[in-house]
Design a protein that fits this description.
Blueprint (H helix, E strand, L loop, with lengths): L1 H7 L18 H38 L3 H24 L52 E3 L5 H12 L4 E3 L2 E7 L16 H14 L14 E8 L5 E4 L11 E8 L2 E7 L5 E6 L4 E5 L6 E5 L9 E8 L9 E5 L21 E5 L16 E5 L2 H4 L6 H21 L4 E4 L8 H16 L8 E3 L7 E2 L4 E2 L16 H19 L7 H9 L7
Parallel strand pairs: 12-13, 12-14, 14-15, 15-16
Antiparallel strand pairs: 1-9, 2-3, 3-4, 4-11, 5-10, 6-9, 6-11, 7-8, 7-10, 17-18
């Protein structure tokens, strides 16, 4: 009744003591008891610490009386050392083999006068200009041309079969798709199972022309056939390139012509050079997937044809994993990496090829234009030269940056991954590697090249010896550069983590993302 009266009069319930006792097991009682226990414990600890501090101070005062001068000297040295440590913490650069990105922060003016710098300052930005650099490719517009690939009976049989099929109108021509789904800009046709007559042609082309690869998993196979139907003089195909991401970058594209001849126009996108090729009935021509990065082609209108009919059957090697095709550009340590499935390999979800580049000058920016991922690890052989000055290292980095910039110029849509130079078993070489890697972190990652540093290389470095960890190096004492099998497995895992992390919006390569890829790929890969 008293509480109710105070409540009605507008008094706060916290301004008086409640006449009703709180239950012992109520959480507020437990919290009050816990708070009281903590307060008592802190009071006891404070009393004990004050007593100990007084005893220690008295004892030190007794011991310090005969050696006051000595202690004053030690205190001065400790003060100077503390200032040096603070200066070092404010000016040290990022670790050479660690993080992916590094922000410079505010400018630092270095340690105070009289204290030698413990580490060199970050290198200045290296400027490169590739605007006037135009690489000349040697890729042909047509890989091979065969005038009479089919006989007349085969041509008649195929045309009779196609005349009974239902085509879909796309622009100024009609199409039908057999086999694996092939999606391109403006595509409307849904794939149908390949009938025996089309399947036999695929098998024949695969047996005769399919190129080999070191791993049978990536021995590409033609599995998609797009048929174009051109009827009349107005029927044509606009200029385009067959550069879709699901086409194997190592494959070729084969086109068989049936019926009336038509002219195919090829145009070099770099030089503007043009070629016109007349494709007659029963002929076959092939283009490499790589050529599609430099050439465009079209089927022109033909006013001389009034009612002529032409079919073109184009066969391609399609697979979802090609959206993750990877080019490895590197030296002998990259040479130990294998594609395909199995322990220490890149896996079935990452097809690709290695490009041997022992030195920076041998990197070919045009070789990797068809790949979605480009991974680079070059520089060791340039740095292992004796009597290499910091100016020479800067020149090597400038050449490296130019090559990377050209790769970005000719393959603007790829994910570009940069591996730091691995540590070695030589202190002198590691000093040069340290300088080179600082350029990668402090300069290359700050440009608009959009390069991604492969993280985790710090684990190759032994902090006690400042050398390559013995568990990752070759047992041969004379081999100071190369990784053993265990080191290669770690290198492969770091590359895979970087590639899959870049495809995940969170920046992490989780188990779910990786397992989905291994099950057969995402339904709509990007």
């Amino acid at each position: 009744k008293q509480w109710y009266q105070r409540r009605v009069r507008g008094l706060c319930p916290w301004c008086y003591d409640c006449p009703i006792a709180c239950p012992i097991k109520h959480r507020s009682a437990k919290a009050r008891l816990s708070l009281q226990s903590t307060y008592d414990a802190n009071s006891i600890s404070s009393t004990v610490l004050d007593a100990l501090d007084g005893m220690i101070s008295n004892k030190l005062a007794e011991l310090a009386q005969p050696t006051n001068l000595l202690i004053e000297g030690i205190q001065k040295q400790l003060t100077g050392l503390t200032e040096s440590i603070k200066s070092f913490e404010a000016t040290k650069p990022p670790p050479s083999l660690g993080h992916q990105h590094y922000n410079h922060g505010p400018p630092v003016h270095g340690p105070p006068m009289g204290v030698p710098p413990l580490r060199p300052p970050p290198p200045p930005a290296i400027k490169t200009d590739i605007r006037n650099i135009s690489l000349i490719h040697t890729t042909k517009h047509i890989e091979e041309m065969r005038e009479e690939y089919l006989n007349k009976e085969e041509e008649r049989e195929l045309m009779n079969f196609l005349e009974g099929q239902s085509f879909t109108q796309e622009g100024k021509r009609e199409v039908i798709l057999f086999g694996e789904k092939y999606k391109y800009m403006g595509s409307k046709s849904q794939p149908q199972p390949a009938p025996p007559i089309i399947k036999n042609m695929m098998d024949k082309l695969n047996q005769k022309f399919s190129n080999s690869h070191e791993d049978s998993r990536y021995h590409f196979s033609l599995n998609s056939c797009l048929v174009n139907r051109f009827s009349g003089c107005d029927s044509h195909l606009p200029e385009h390139s067959d550069n879709e991401g699901d086409i194997s970058p190592l494959s070729s594209i084969y086109t068989v012509s049936l019926g009336c001849p038509r002219t195919i126009k090829f145009r070099d996108t770099v030089s503007g050079e043009q070629h016109r090729v007349v494709c007659k009935g029963r002929s076959l021509y092939s283009m490499t997937r790589h050529s599609q990065d430099f050439w465009k082609h079209s089927v022109e209108k033909d006013e001389d044809i009034s009612s002529g009919l032409r079919y073109s059957l184009t066969f391609r090697a399609i697979h979802w994993s090609n959206f993750n095709s990877t080019a490895l550009i590197g030296d002998s340590n990259f040479g130990q990496i294998r594609f395909g499935t199995g322990k220490g390999k890149l896996g079935q979800s990452t097809p690709g090829v290695r490009f041997w580049s022992p030195t920076i000058s041998e990197i070919d920016p045009l070789s990797c234009t068809s790949f979605k991922n480009v991974v680079i690890m070059v520089g060791t052989n340039n740095l292992k030269v004796n009597k290499l000055s910091e100016t020479d290292i800067t020149d090597h980095y400038r050449d490296y940056k130019t090559k990377v910039s050209l790769i970005r110029k000719y393959n603007p849509r790829c994910k570009l991954f940069i591996c730091p130079v691995l540590p070695s078993k030589s202190h002198d070489l590691n000093r040069k590697i340290e300088i080179f890697n600082r350029f990668l972190f402090n300069d290359l990652c700050q440009t608009d090249i959009n390069a991604i540093i492969v993280e985790g290389f710090r684990q190759f470095f032994d902090g006690k010896t400042n050398l390559l960890k013995s568990v990752f190096g070759k047992p041969d004492p004379g081999d100071t550069l190369h990784l053993n099998d265990r080191g290669v497995r770690v290198l492969v895992s770091l590359i895979k983590i970087s590639i899959f992390s870049s495809k995940n919006s969170s920046g992490k390569a989780g188990r779910k993302l990786y397992s989905n890829t291994l099950r057969g790929g995402p339904p709509n890969p990007v």
